Amino acid sequence: GWPNVRRVAGNDDRAAAEILRFGDAADFCAIARGFGLHGETIEHPSAIAPALRAALARNETTVLDVRTDIE
């Protein structure tokens, strides 16, 4: 969690935040698929609830990659 990230970054919040920035190139759904899991990228807030309902109905491990602006 955040306390561990802060500790790794020398208790510097700004440095810790940089550690958590994966950028647009990170494709967590592709990683999930590589492990045989279902993955879905969510880019709009209105799509979160339907994707979550579908993931729960699927009854299998699912990665929902919700894209947000860190700022």
Quick rundown:
With 71 residues, this protein is an alpha+beta fold.
Topology:
Layout: H1 2-8, H2 13-19, H3 28-34, E1 38-42, H4 48-58, E2 62-66
Parallel strand pairs: 1-2
Helix pairs in contact: 1-2
**Number of DSSP helices?**
4
Q: Mean pLDDT, rounded to whole units?
A: 87
Q: Which sequence of strands runs across the widest sheet?
A: 1-2
Rg to the nearest angstrom?
A: 15 Å
Sketch the major β-sheet.
2 strands, parallel
Q: What overall form do the CA principal axes indicate?
A: elongated
Main features:
two-stranded parallel ribbon; alpha+beta; 71 residues
How would you explain this protein's 3D organization?
- 45% of the residues lie in helices and 14% in strands.
- With 71 residues, the chain is an alpha+beta fold.
- The chain has a two-stranded parallel sheet with strand order 1-2.
- Helix 1 packs across helix 2.
- The protein is elongated.
- The model has no long low-confidence stretch (mean pLDDT 87).
